[in-house]
Fold:
Amino acid sequence: MAHPSTVDRLAAGDHVCWTFDDHERHLEALVRFVRGGLERGEQVLYFTDTFLPEAFLVALGGYGVDAAAAQDGGRLRVTSADDSYLAGGFFEPERALEGWVKAIQDARGEGYAGLRVAVDMGWTARLAPGLDRLVSYEREVNRIFSEGYAMALCCYDRRLFTAAELERLGAAHPGTARGGAGTDEEWTPLLRMRREGGVLTLSGEADATNQDALRVMVEDVVESARDAGGHAVIDVSALTFADLAAVRLLAGAVTAGSARLRGAGPWLTDVLALVGVHDPGEGSAR
Amino acid sequence: MSAGPFEHAGPFEHAGPFEHAGPFEHIGLLYSTPAEYAAGCGAFLRRALDRGDPAMVAVPGPNGAFLRESLGAEVADRVSFADMTVAGRNPGRIIPRVLLDFARRHRGRRVWIIGEPIWPGRTELEYPACAAHEALINLAFAGRDAAILCPYDVVGLLDEAVSDAHRTHPVMADASRSWASAAYDDPVRTAAGFDRPLPPPPATARSRGFASPGELGALRAFVAARARAEGLGAAVVHRVLLAVNEVATNAFEYTPGGCEVTAWGEPEAFVCQIDDAGHIEEPLAGRLPPDDPLERGQGLVAVNEVTDLVRVHRHPGGTTTRLHFARG
Structure:
């Protein structure tokens, strides 16, 4: 499983698939996550499927976090998945996505420095919405969190999913913390995506492990730019690697006249030329 | 057409055996002197230019300069030239990026290409890939309206290369005549025959196994560290990472058990080898670019594009893909 310290490396705007197979370390990671948020003046929401909310609050106290005070002030909310996600007895992705938008609005309205959300995804294994719906939900979540105010830690119990299922779910997240992550060396999400109006900023590496997350964000920024009658800008100056599928995705947006790339380095320019795109930049007219 | 070299009846004027061949002609031209080279190539180009068809010469630089000279400007200016030691450094790149590329730029017309992929400087490691390429041309161009002439330097090349040419070309020619090659055989079987075991990696090589696509990032970090330790510049490191990542991603997607990556430096090249438990069944994998470059299936074509030599060895335990990147 991923090392608990990996959660310290999350930043606002991140959406991470975090895998575990041991509740001790899961708890330790959650404590670090909650403490980090409270220290930074962020609101922290935890939707648990692992612990009873009361028991989790007691455990936080054991780690020296004044959970009661935080909860009274509304800075911390611990809710069971059954009372939230599944309030209607089944999972409705649309409602859940709307819930995140509202939670972000509320946290902003209340003046928090940010919002951090941890969700145990174990309950999804008990449901019958099918993996496709869950994957599609995880993809859509990127649109909301990449705005850069909130971060999402999606906790997946490796014992409840097959390796192939976790691969598909992982690919809907820009970063995944897998077994061993953070044990020997510092871990950060492989890719970070931030969306501000018609500009999508990418940093890190894009490959098969985050391809669906990247796709939804490129489509998102392109669509809204098109609606506004212009083209999107994709800032790739901090993108350090993109596999051919990712380059093809960027090239497709450029070729369609829907996006321009900002800050493409020589390596990316070379690969773009391989797929027939010779003037991806902002300055060139098409 | 009345320039000097074309005055005599060339070998292709009385080319009985292939007059009734399909639209695709693939001819091995044996030459032992510059005059024979000029005569054979000149006659071929004359056929093209007489018909007003597009023609290209993709041969090693000095041979191209010599041909340009002997053809005269009036002819040479109507022919495209490419230096095969650059454009075709990696033999796996010749079909997609030299031959098919020219055919696509002249879609709907018969194209005439002189391609010389095998020259005396080719290394022992490059040769099997070159010979396999010659066999696979027959498959890639089957039914296409094209003629490809491949000159073979019978003085400079090993006997093996010359006798292999008879197996990879349905028609052979010399400066005076052409004939159906009795040794020509099924191109897939012939290409498979050039799949030879690779020399073992040196003792200095470093290996690491990767079980799942989740480890692609770690795989790239491993390869990047080896490449930088070998003193490769940033541009080459990026080519290495793109190619290795693409082969490894395929291995994770299509084969069980992940892959093992082995990397080492040689005096002239950085070498990276990917071993997996699968077999690619498509003999033209990596040689046929999709019409739309944004389509899937471009992966191995791109690997051929950024790599200086790709050797693929199939064995009962799976496939070894060895990628060579020239230093500098």
